[in-house]
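Need a sequence for this fold. Nothing fancy.
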């Protein structure tokens, strides 16, 4: 029988890229994480370990049904990557389930929502500061990343590193607040879609997904394929205008159509 995961892998590549077959794929993301309480306990323990061992904390939010989530874990098992991680990182995998365990995890790090799985957060554990905020969506295509990509990316961070600070004036600060508000608004729309899609994923299991489900999934994937680039462009435009002395800064926000509207 062709499973839901194999079917979705061929048609829904934008968001999760591909889905692993549950009956044959390994399950690296902890199966005991079936509640926020269990996840937060694991993260708290990992953070304590990172502080004690003077490493960075790495959180990988993914699912055992997600090809790229499993692919990311496989990358970490490479000899060179494993040596780098052993030296610099305390790694905690976070099982997002069928998209139901996201909001209360990422809100601790001032991240509105995730735009794909896996999403990897590199965190300075003493301050709980996210060091890779500008590239959080990079690993949603984890299986396509090379070992060299992995070494270069994670080799750029070191224990004790803090986020770069940006000098922000009144005009740029106001523009950033507008962009943040826009992103939070889109995040709420995505959470509504996640809730619906997650319920359908859980109910469908390994059976063939309906055409309606595929259409909805594709719709959400298209939106999230665009929004990360759009947000980066908005912030870049705001910085450019600020450097040119434009005040107030002008922003043109994109619109997205979601099936939940």
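Here you go.
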């Amino acid at each position: 029988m062709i499973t839901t995961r194999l079917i979705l892998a061929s048609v829904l590549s934008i968001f999760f890229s591909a889905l692993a077959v549950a009956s044959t794929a390994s399950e690296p993301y902890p199966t005991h994480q079936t509640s926020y309480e269990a996840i937060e306990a694991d993260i708290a323990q990992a953070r304590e370990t990172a502080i004690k061992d003077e490493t960075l904390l790495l959180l990988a939010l993914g699912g055992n049904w997600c090809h790229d989530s499993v692919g990311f874990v496989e990358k970490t098992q490479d000899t060179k990557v494993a040596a780098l991680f052993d030296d610099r990182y305390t790694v905690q995998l976070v099982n997002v389930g069928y998209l139901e365990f996201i909001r209360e995890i990422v809100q601790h790090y001032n991240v509105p929502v995730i735009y794909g799985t896996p999403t990897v957060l590199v965190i300075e554990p003493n301050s709980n500061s996210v060091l890779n905020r500008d590239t959080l969506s990079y690993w949603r295509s984890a299986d396509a990343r090379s070992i060299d990509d992995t070494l270069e990316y994670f080799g750029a961070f070191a224990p004790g590193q803090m986020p770069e600070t940006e000098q922000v004036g009144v005009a740029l600060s106001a523009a950033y607040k507008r962009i943040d508000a826009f992103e939070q608004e889109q995040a709420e729309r995505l959470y509504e879609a996640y809730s619906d899609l997650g319920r359908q994923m859980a109910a469908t299991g390994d059976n063939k997904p309906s055409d309606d489900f595929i259409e909805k999934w594709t719709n959400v994937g298209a939106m999230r394929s665009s929004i990360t680039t759009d947000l980066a462009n908005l912030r870049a435009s705001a910085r450019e205008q600020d450097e040119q002395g434009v005040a107030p800064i002008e922003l043109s926000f994109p619109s997205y159509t979601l099936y939940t509207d």
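For context: Residues 1-25 have pLDDT under 50 and may be disordered.
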